[in-house]
Design goal:
single chain; 191 residues; alpha+beta; three-stranded antiparallel β-sheet; 29% helix; binds zinc ion
């Protein structure tokens, strides 16, 4: 019993390493390496057999309308609501045809700094150059090894200030990138 348990953990660890190696081989180096452009979110899909790593990153301004640290209860609540929404895969895209189990979900907001009590122009100018982002990361196990040729993006319906999504993918049989404006909810993974 113990032995099985230990072996299982080692296997999981190796698997994660393989996935990281895949990520590093992608020329764009994933969503995090993309520039922060207001209105534009990044979507990354990496497949390793039946496992899929999915990462969605968006400037906070697209999601809550601000990027400073929350100053009111309403702003704190807005952040919580977006994190809750992002924790639901269906709020970003539809993978229902694949019959996937969600192994792990992580949501984060990074870069929000306090500007409370900062009235000095020079400091404010510096802070204006700072940006904040929401990230949602999913690890999925799917019953089908091949993703369909098209995925339906639902994020535009759920996040009104999102203007476009830059998607990058590396699957078993294909890799590519597509820039989707609001009016295009079809992510074409294969020609
Ligand atoms: Zn920004």
């Amino acid at each position: 019993m113990m032995l099985t348990d230990v072996t299982g953990r080692i296997a999981t660890h190796l698997h994660t390493s393989t996935l990281m190696a895949c990520l590093l081989m992608i020329p764009t180096a994933g969503a995090l390496a993309q520039p922060h452009v207001h209105g534009v979110a990044q979507l990354l899909l990496v497949q390793d057999n039946a496992r899929i790593h999915m990462e969605f990153t968006s400037p906070a301004i697209n999601m809550v309308g601000f990027e400073h640290s929350p100053r009111t209860d309403a702003e704190r609540q807005a952040i919580d609501e977006v994190r809750r929404a992002l924790a639901n895969l269906d709020s970003i895209l539809t993978l229902s045809a694949l019959d996937c189990d969600v192994d792990s979900i992580e949501t984060a907001v990074t870069g929000m700094i306090s500007i409370d009590g900062d009235t000095h122009n020079h400091h404010r100018h510096l802070h204006d150059a700072d940006h904040a982002e929401f990230t949602a990361t999913f690890e999925l196990s799917c019953s089908r090894a091949q993703l369909p040729s098209e995925l339906v993006i639902t994020a535009f319906d759920n996040f009104q200030d999102l203007e476009s999504i830059h998607a990058t993918w590396s699957l078993q049989d294909t890799q590519g990138a597509q820039h989707l404006p609001r009016q295009n909810t079809r992510l074409r993974l294969r020609p």
